[in-house]
């Protein structure tokens, strides 16, 4: 599963982090195998500006979950620093840390400039920076002038994240698993998966293509209640579309008075791959989605205002997956 660490209306980041740990402990009991955290900056609605710190917090409060980044926005960070930080986490929690990498800033351009300062480079250096990270993690780097301690020699799996076709080519060329952000950028999902699979080159890390797709999930006992809960997500996405991200609001009975001109269409397009409804409804929609995408693994994100309803949504989603009849990987809902 993916946790954006949403800040709820009327709450604080401290509340968000407590909810995240509570959620992680709950989904661990439900059989989820991964818990990924995103990187966003300068957003009043999201508290995950430091995924490395949150990964340590979640890993320290759980016992079996793989915890990782979905992802770290590599252009914001020097590869050596990422290798050292993730290496530290992988040393503290052996066999439980994943490293998902993205090329977007996770913010607006002005904020990205504030993060990077005078450091040159950016998204165009993404391929080179990934290879530099791989070198730092390699045991062969022990004779290099610059080494990642801790980090060197550790088996930290790397995943390439994308929301367009660009990263599909890169993940294929490097022979790495590919995770697509279809929870907010659905338009190019199928094209990106075709590019990735048809261009994949086997590597030491991966012998054959491995696809992960992120989807929104809002499950409840009835379709009507799930639709009601989903109005929080719709309001949240509308604030993103209008350029004024706001804390996740409580659900409403009627969205019609809240839509700005063009907002409903834009939000509906962004949320095209959303599973909203009862367990039976979601199970049917999942069957169709997995048939269409042949995804090896699903990343589930549930942005629901009420914490208990959020946990219950993940419970129903896990139960729905059990009946889909897909390979084991498909029942291991990640992140994002």
UniProtKB/TrEMBL annotation:
Protein name: LLM class flavin-dependent oxidoreductase
Tree of life domain: Bacteria
Annotated Gene3D superfamilies: Luciferase-like domain
Domain named Luciferase-like: residues: 12-240
Family from the record: To bacterial alkanal monooxygenase alpha and beta chains.
PANTHER family recorded: LUCIFERASE-LIKE MONOOXYGENASE
């Amino acid at each position: 599963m993916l946790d954006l660490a949403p800040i709820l209306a009327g709450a604080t980041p401290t509340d968000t982090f407590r909810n995240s740990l509570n959620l992680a402990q709950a989904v661990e009991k439900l059989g989820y195998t991964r818990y990924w955290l995103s990187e966003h900056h300068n957003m009043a609605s999201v508290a995950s500006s430091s995924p490395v710190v949150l990964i340590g917090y979640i890993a320290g409060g759980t016992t079996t979950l793989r915890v990782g980044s979905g992802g770290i926005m590599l252009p914001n960070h020097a590869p050596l620093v990422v290798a050292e930080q993730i290496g530290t986490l992988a040393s503290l929690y052996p066999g439980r840390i994943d490293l998902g990498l993205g090329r977007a800033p996770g913010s607006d351009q002005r904020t990205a400039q504030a993060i990077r300062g005078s450091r040159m480079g950016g998204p165009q250096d993404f391929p080179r920076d990934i290879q530099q990270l791989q070198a730092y993690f390699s045991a062969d780097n022990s004779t290099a002038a610059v080494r990642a301690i801790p980090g060197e020699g550790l088996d930290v799996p790397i995943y390439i994240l994308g929301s367009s076709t660009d990263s599909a080519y890169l993940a294929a060329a490097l022979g790495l698993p590919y995770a697509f952000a279809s929870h907010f950028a659905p338009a190019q999902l199928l094209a990106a998966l075709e590019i990735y699979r048809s261009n994949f080159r086997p590597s030491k890390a991966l012998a054959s293509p491995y696809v992960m797709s992120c989807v929104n999930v809002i499950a409840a006992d009835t379709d009507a209640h799930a639709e009601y809960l989903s109005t929080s997500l719709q309001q949240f996405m509308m604030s993103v579309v209008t350029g004024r991200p706001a804390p996740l609001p409580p659900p409403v009975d009627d969205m019609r008075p809240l839509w700005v001109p063009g907002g409903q269409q834009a939000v509906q397009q962004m949320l095209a791959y959303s599973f909203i409804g009862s367990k039976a409804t979601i199970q049917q929609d999942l069957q169709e989605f997995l048939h269409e995408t042949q995804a090896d693994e699903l990343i589930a994100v549930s942005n629901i205002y009420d914490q208990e309803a959020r946990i219950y949504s993940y419970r129903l989603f896990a139960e729905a997956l059990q009946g889909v009849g897909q390979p084991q990987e498909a029942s291991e809902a990640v992140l994002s």
